[in-house]
Amino acid sequence: MTAREIRLAARPKGWPTLETFEHTTVELPPLADGHVLVRNRCMSVDPYMRGRMNDVKSYVPPFQVGRVLDGGAIGEVIESASPLLQPGDIVLSMRGWRDLFVAPAAELPKVDASVQPLSLYLGALGMPGLTAWVGLRLAELKAGDRVFVSGAAGAVGSIAGQIAKSRGCFVVGSAGTDEKVHVLTAALGFDRAFNYKAGGIRERLAEAAPDGLDVYFDNVGGDHLEAALACMRERGRIAACGAISRYNDEAPAPGPRNMFLFVTRRLTMRGFIVSDHAGERGAFLAEVAPFVRSGQVQARETVVDGLEHAPQAFLDMLAGANIGKMIVRLS
Prior knowledge:
single chain; Quinone Oxidoreductase, Chain A, domain 1; 6-stranded mixed sheet; alpha/beta; 6-stranded parallel sheet; Rossmann fold
């Protein structure tokens, strides 16, 4: 049996292109004892994957040129040579960017197939949702806080803002289009939102949060971080989740020019990697899963069909074309 997969063809300099990726077909190994054959139903494309395309040491190993990419995926067991999994079981893996694979059953956690859509395990109930929840916990979020979420229409930001609203906070979000701004306020419950491409970020944030900010959930870095620092109240807290505005830079950009505010306003900023908090998944699901089921937290998705379109979906996600989680549906 053969499988289709997508490999890293070359390390990008600056923005990736379709030439960064290579489509190929491979022979699958025979099904050994304890292994299963899985057909992926859907896969995730995420901002952190851009960092893995660089040949630098980081918190995850870099992708290798000429080797298949990987990432979160939900699949269905087609054949099994293990008592742990049966055909029809739905499993979570890090073997995205391919349509079929063979792997040890012990490495593939089974998930509840009644959860629909299954892509929730890659979004609101998966890594992005946990990232949002952990970041707010590290920022010591409490009722009444005034919160700013950058990249608020993305997979992590949209959940972070909704969790903060569910805990009784005033929430402001930034996004890159007027359509996304409308979704944030009209559908996701943000108190205010603004299009950061429509004017000075610092001025627009100050207008949206005239009483200042207690918490900033930073997905963007750069000018967003500088603007947030200017609006922070004394003893404000910042959760540093990502800096997508800098991921494709070929040279380091200057840092915020107002870092002295950390001293004068007694601010705290804490970076985190969600994989360090895998043990908190149970507590996260206990709080957030009921909100998702009831609709109090909406799990927005942008869905692209076909493995062959995964590279374009990844490029579109980096450019901000998605609302909520970017999902590639394979079957």
